[in-house]
Input
Amino acid sequence: MLSTHRPDVDDPDWQSGHQAITELRDRIRTLFHHTTELENRDLFYAFNQYLWEVREEVTHLCTYLDWLAEKPPAEVAFPGRERIYNFYRQGFSVAVQELLKRDRSGRFHHGA
Output
């Protein structure tokens, strides 16, 4: 989906991938919500940090894909203001971030 410099957001494969990631985000949000209701707080705290990170990263990725789907001009950078750029994240987040083209400040770019 993000392996090309400027993805073709009209491509059915891209749209299918976008939909799949959006559905994954929704499942992660549901799982995160359910874990907050665990009576076993030790179990909750064992998973909370990881689920929080995955939820935030996938939500941000979906926001980015939604923005790309709007076909912004090539010279425009993703305006994700809620994001803390170049903030240390763990395994899953690092793998996701390596797929995204970023400038030196850590902002996402998918120019022409």
Q: What stands out?
A: The chain has a mean pLDDT of 81. Helices lie at 12-36, 41-69, 91-99. Residues 20 and 100 are 18 Å apart (CA to CA).
